[in-house]
């Protein structure tokens, strides 16, 4: 990076040169009370605003929007800012680091411990719609399901772990995303086979030229196909 | 045979930095002395967790699999420090290095690793990894030119002899915390996950486990086995299989049980100490170490012959506790800071160690949790201030606690009415009820399965 670049620098910028972007949804009380505290304790925002440069003398907030709202409320003319680069990644990372956005984990590959911590976070949130979900039951059933192939979260509703369609399943999207693997052509994993309807299994058995499948029950079909 | 090792050690400056220790001791002679050729040692091995890299990963080559090329299935990790870092046990850099090694051992690329070594050429310690569990396999030893050969020989012997099983004693010197239920259901879920498991009912006063599964005594008694030093007793006759058939799946699951016999129970305590050494039970169990993945010992709630033998025989101690029973917490603390170190002093290999405690089988309200934390905080504080036996209990009660997070997380196994009731049905709850299975597999994954 050239010496002329301001990226990484702490600078004192005019607040009217900074675009607040999406702003903050912090309650009014916290903003006014913090502004009062700021004014009475020296008036310098030691925790800086994170901005990117969008033009000559023009900046946009990418993190710590709360500080912007407080500075505005306190009537500061200038605020201390850290200049970040303008990439998408930096904007995203800064939002997560300043806790304005919840980080997400890939449920297709997450470990059991990660799933447990994420679910616990969701369940223990105030007014959580998942309050009635049993943490250990949900953790294990999701962990042991063939989630690497899930295209969406819908299969979770069939795990009987108290996470039903609608509000509850949507709540999971706050912390999880999926990058599914393609289904293999020949499925031999009994846990996946068990999730498929019997008719589907019979079709598979036919395709793989298995003998005597037509009268078999689901469990036997699963066993036949997993060989 | 170890002359080069001694020579290299003598020529090292006393303040050698990590690069020098590596260049003149580890890379040219130490790894070779452990039996690893250059293409079997991968320096700066990426562990798969972020950008972390461990100083060395080692594995023996097979015919068409050169470790340096394939990088797959590492077997040993070595974390190296310079002599400028003090690695004597208890020092700050020792604690942080052990923590660093544990992080590497549990990283995604290191699932196949079985051993971990930390050294700065002044001190060395070997750790064993089994699933998620990491425990010391030697003391943190001071290396001198006189003993370096013996130390390397000892490590080499340990890493070449693969012992398959992890031996776990389920223990709390307070009764009624659910030791037997935990043992049986843990065995049940480990078996479902394909791990071969042996249970030892080592509580002859109660024999709860044997009764709860409706097991009849085996052909041979544990007593005669402990007494027999001439291999007259056929060890297989000691074992009782417990077989459970899932009718709808048409599948069978089986774990093995060694039951305590009446003769052990009838013998007077002082007499037992006269006939059997404390290490005798461990010797007997060693015969089973390569036949199982897990050996679980259900031990009795006191600190006498049976529980002492059980703790002596195990690698790690799993301590169930009740959040609403302060005595179960206090007793857990006593076990961790007094009893287990007592056994460590006789065993001289750094083990056994306690796993973090867990709350067993109760519903915990938020207020009760706060009360329990309050009680635990004061137990920890007391142990920290104890002038005669200063001890840091924090990692055993709050394993996730750091100065930055102050996380008071303790694993808790919620209550489930059917778990207690199944004792009458002679079936582990985890086999009969899906929710019980979910609970206990979480326990297994929290502590053991990786």
Q: How many separate helices of chain B?
A: 18
Q: What summary fits the major beta sheet of chain B?
A: 7 strands, mixed
Largest sheet of chain A: 5 strands, mixed
Largest binding interface between chains: A-B, 14 and 13 residues
Number of E strands of chain B:
17
CATH architecture of the largest domain in chain B: 3-Layer(aba) Sandwich
* Average pLDDT number of chain A: 90
The portion of residues forming beta strands of chain B comes to 15-25%
Tags for this model:
A: 227 residues; alpha/beta; Conserved hypothetical protein from pyrococcus furiosus pfu- 392566-001, ParB domain; 7 strands; B: 450 residues; tt1808, chain A; Rossmann fold; seven-stranded mixed sheet; 18 helices; 17 strands
Account of the protein in words:
The complex is a heterodimer of chains A (227) and B (450). Chain A has 227 residues and is an alpha/beta fold. Chain A has 3 domains: 88 residues, Conserved hypothetical protein from pyrococcus furiosus pfu- 392566-001, ParB domain (Alpha-Beta Complex); 73 residues; 36 residues, no CATH class. Helices cover 38% and strands 14% of the residues of chain A. The N and C termini of chain A lie far apart (59 Å). The model of chain A has no long low-confidence stretch (mean pLDDT 90). Chain B has 450 residues and is α/β, with parallel strands linked by helices. Chain B is built from 18 helices and 17 strands. In chain B, the strands form 3 sheets. In chain B, strands 1, 2, 3, 4, 5, 6 and 7 form a 7-stranded mixed β-sheet that branches. In chain B, a hairpin with a 6-residue loop joins β1 and β2. The longest helix of chain B is centred in the C-terminal third of the chain and has 22 residues. Chains A and B meet through α4, α5 and α9 of A and α18 of B.
């Amino acid at each position: 990076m050239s010496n002329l670049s301001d990226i990484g620098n702490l600078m004192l910028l005019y607040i009217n040169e900074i675009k607040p972007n999406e702003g903050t949804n912090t309650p009014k009380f916290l903003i006014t009370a913090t502004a009062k505290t700021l004014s009475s304790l020296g008036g310098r925002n030691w925790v800086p605003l994170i901005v990117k440069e969008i033009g000559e003398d023009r900046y946009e907030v990418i993190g710590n929007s709360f500080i912007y709202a407080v500075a505005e409320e306190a009537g500061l003319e200038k605020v201390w800012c850290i200049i970040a680069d303008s990439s998408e990644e930096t904007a995203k990372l800064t939002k997560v680091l300043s806790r304005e956005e919840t980080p997400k984990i890939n449920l297709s590959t997450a470990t059991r411990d990660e799933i447990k911590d994420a679910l616990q976070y969701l369940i223990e949130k105030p007014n959580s719609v998942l309050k009635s979900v049993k943490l250990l039951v949900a953790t294990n059933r999701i962990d042991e399901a063939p989630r690497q192939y899930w295209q969406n979260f819908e299969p979770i509703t069939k795990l009987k772990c108290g996470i039903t369609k609608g509000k509850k399943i949507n709540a999971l999207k706050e912390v999880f995303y999926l990058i599914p693997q393609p289904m293999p052509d020949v499925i031999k994993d009994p846990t996946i086979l068990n999730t498929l309807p019997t008719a589907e299994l019979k079709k598979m058995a036919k395709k793989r030229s298995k003998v005597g499948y037509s009268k078999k029950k689901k469990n036997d079909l699963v066993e036949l196909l997993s060989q | 045979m170890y002359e080069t090792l001694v020579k290299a050690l003598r020529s090292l400056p006393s303040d050698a930095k990590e690069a020098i220790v590596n260049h003149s001791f580890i890379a040219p002679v130490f790894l070779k002395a452990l039996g690893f050729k250059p293409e079997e040692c991968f320096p700066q091995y990426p562990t798969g967790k972020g950008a972390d890299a461990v100083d060395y990963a080692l594995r023996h080559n097979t015919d068409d699999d050169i470790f340096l090329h394939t990088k797959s299935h590492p077997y040993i990790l070595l974390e190296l420090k310079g002599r400028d870092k003090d690695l004597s046990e208890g020092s700050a850099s020792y604690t942080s290095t052990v923590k660093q090694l544990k992080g590497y051992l549990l990283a995604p690329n290191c699932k196949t690793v079985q051993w971990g070594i930390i050294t700065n050429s002044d001190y060395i310690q070997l750790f064993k990894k089994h699933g998620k569990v990491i425990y010391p396999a030697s003391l943190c030893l001071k290396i001198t030119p006189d003993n370096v050969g013996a130390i390397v020989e000892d490590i080499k012997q340990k890493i070449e002899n693969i012992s398959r099983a992890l031996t776990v004693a389920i223990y709390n010197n307070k009764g009624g915390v659910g030791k037997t239920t935990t043992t049986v259901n843990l065995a049940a879920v480990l078996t479902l996950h394909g791990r071969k498991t042996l249970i030892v009912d080592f509580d002859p006063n109660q024999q709860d486990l044997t009764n709860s599964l409706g097991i009849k005594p085996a052909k041979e008694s544990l007593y005669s086995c402990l007494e027999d030093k001439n291999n007259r007793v056929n060890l297989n006759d000691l074992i009782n299989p417990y077989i459970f058939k899932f009718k709808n799946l048409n599948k069978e699951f089986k774990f093995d049980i060694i039951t305590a016999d009446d003769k052990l129970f009838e013998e007077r305590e002082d007499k037992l100490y006269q006939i059997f050494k404390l290490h005798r039970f461990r010797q007997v169990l060693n015969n089973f170490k390569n036949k199982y993945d897990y050996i679980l010992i259900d031990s009795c709630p006191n600190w006498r012959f049976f529980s002492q033998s059980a703790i002596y025989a195990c690698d790690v101690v799993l301590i169930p506790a009740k959040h609403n029973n302060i005595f179960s917490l206090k007793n857990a603390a006593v076990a961790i800071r007094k009893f287990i170190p007592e056994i460590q002093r006789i065993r001289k290999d750094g083990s056994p160690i306690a796993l973090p405690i867990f709350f067993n089988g109760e519903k915990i309200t938020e207020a009760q949790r706060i009360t329990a934390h309050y009680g635990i905080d004061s137990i920890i504080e007391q142990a920290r201030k104890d002038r005669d036996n200063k001890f840091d209990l924090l990692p055993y009660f709050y394993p996730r606690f750091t100065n930055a997070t102050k996380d008071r997380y303790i694993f808790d196994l919620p209550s489930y009415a059917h778990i207690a009731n199944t004792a009458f049905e002679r079936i582990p709850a985890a086999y009969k009820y899906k929710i019980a299975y979910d609970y206990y597999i979480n326990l297994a994954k929290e502590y053991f399965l990786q």
